[in-house]
């Protein structure tokens, strides 16, 4: 390979090395961003997981309280008095007393759980139980159960989404780490090639310089020899 070819190869490799250096820095920056993002994600998801456990416990207690309230209201004695026409042997006082006991028991159960968890919507439902007719109370309780289950479902989906993000980010970090290693290897290889070509060029330049010196000396020697020859001829 001539000097010009080596110089062209060196310029090409230097350009590739500069690009590899830029790519490596960009990959390092992206990797650093993903790693910071993962730290924040893990922290937030850890908080969400802790909150999730607490919220699920609260929702379960509220659901149990409402279910028990419905059970209380639909027990045989209360259901008969709410849903059927009174028999002729039942007095209005007895009806009111049984109804009042069932409502009071269910209402106190609801309000107790509502106060414990500061759920004022549930508390207001407990108050309504003492004012509305049975069917309205039952309908409101069923609706509250649906709402609580919907909240539970949303919280589960949020938790799953958070965990899915962690997995995706970890996968992305693994890919970028591999890219970083590949680019570091490529950059190192190009740098070694640059050093090798520089050494070759330096050796070649020295050889050319030595050749020029040798040629100059050879010329000087020939000139000196020619002068000596001319002097010898003139002396004869």
User: Number of helical segments?
Assistant: 5
DSSP strand tally = 0
Largest sheet, in brief, is: none
Low-pLDDT stretches are 81-93
Query: Termini separation (Å)?
Result: 52 Å
Shape annotation = rod-shaped
CATH topology: Helix Hairpins
Number of domains: 1
| SS-derived structural category | mainly alpha
Mean pLDDT over all positions? 76
CATH architecture grouping: Orthogonal Bundle
- Share of helical residues: over 70%
Strand content: under 5%
CATH class designation: Mainly Alpha
SSE order, one letter for each helix or strand: HHHHH
Keywords: Coiled coil
Biased composition (Basic and acidic residues): 217-226
Region (Disordered): 217-236
Biased composition (Polar residues): 227-236
Labels describing this entry:
236 residues; mainly alpha; Helix Hairpins; 5 helices; 0% strand
Structural commentary:
The chain has 236 residues and is an all-alpha fold. The protein has a single domain, classed as Orthogonal Bundle (Helix Hairpins), CATH 1.10.287. It is 92% helix and 0% strand. The chain has five helices and no strands. Helix 1 (3-73) runs antiparallel to helix 5, helix 2 crosses helix 3 (92-117) and helix 3 runs antiparallel to helix 4 (120-128). The protein is rod-shaped. The protein starts with a helix and ends with a helix.
